[in-house]
Amino acid sequence: MAERPLTHRRLSRVRARAGTLYVLTPWWGKVLAVFAVSRIVSTAVLLSFAARQPANAWTGPSPGYFDFAKLWDGHWYFIIAVSGYPSELPLTDDGHVAENAWAFMPAYPSLVRALMTLTGAPFAGVAVVVSVLFAAAAALLLYRLMNLVLPSSTALFSVVLFCFSPLSPLYQVAYAESMHTFLLTAALALLLQRRYWMLLPVLALASLTRPSGLAFALTMVLHVAYRWWTRREDPFPARERVAASVAAVFSGLTGLAWLLIAWAITGSLTAYTDTELAWRAPYIGYTHLIPFTPWVQGANWWLGEPTGAILLAIAVAAFAALMFTPWVRRLGVDLRLWVASYVLYLLAVFFPQSSTPRLLLPTFPLFGAIAQPTAPVYRVAVVLLFILGQIGWVHIAWWADGVDWTPP
């Protein structure tokens, strides 16, 4: 009987020390600790699937981590890092533009290539390290971004959700998502702080990492309109009007830059869009890019007519309603404008298929809405659900099990 009070006192002291350590740890230490634990979990998930990976187009059976991490689009980035972009567009037997490297922006593979040259290390290792470092930096920036609109504890849990999210294995493979997420987080933080001129170089690099310039241009246009509308309550001086307007125009130009670069090198104005359309040809054949039709086409292809279009309309309406819920409204106007603009951009140009969850990654500010309930049971349950989501996503989309139909 004497042991119980002693054990209780020891447990109380351990809890007190842990609480003190938590309080004394700076915010960046907490973020990096969360990130490190999350990478252990995601690495374990990826390695478990790599051990069971059959031989495929990219690797032999049971590949090592780095080979497993450069499947799918990682191989396209490898091609670009090694040999660049084709000056002539490859064609199919019936004369259409075939899948090729122009579908992938140059910033990430160019950085990997530079580091390969500098270090002499192979592509896969460099690409993974670059992705992990950008992901860690993105987690740090995300905390600062969320802390602009949410309490610090909620901002930290937003980072937890970001680090353990179902698609978080992408932060440590040979994909450009980590780099783009870092740049996008920086751009959003600068927007909230109204540091418009500093946005320009960040937007330029982000637009050459993943398609995002046109979506951010729409965000800036809506931001300028909102600030003008509320200028009596929140002054909008002329110097800020000029700077924000310049950022909006600049973002639109950077959103078109890759299309113009592809045109200049290949001689085809539609080189980039034709290349993107090649990836949806197995579903609906070769078509022209008509804004806002791809999702209707995709919904009808997957679910049949008119069921697909009806369910798509319901999903769009549900998303619109979500943006006005109290949890999302607490994120502030600018983050909501970004999420809405980006989703509208996806609806305008992308075709829904297995990479759609990855394309939704830039809506990560919504983690701030999910993070707001503080009940410990809720938070633990969400993290566990997200980890199960990682296992499900890698099983469905990443490993090549012989029945895959398109890349993640």
TrEMBL record:
Domain of life: Bacteria
Location(s) in or outside the cell: Endoplasmic reticulum membrane
Keywords of the record: Endoplasmic reticulum, Glycosyltransferase, GPI-anchor biosynthesis, Membrane, Transferase, Transmembrane, Transmembrane helix
Transmembrane region(s): 21-51, 114-141, 148-167, 199-222, 242-265, 308-328, 335-353, 382-400
One Pfam short name: Mannosyl_trans2
InterPro entries: PIG-V/Gpi18
Membrane topology: Multi-pass membrane protein
Molecular function (Gene Ontology), one example: glycosyltransferase activity
Protein name from the UniProt record: Mannosyltransferase family protein
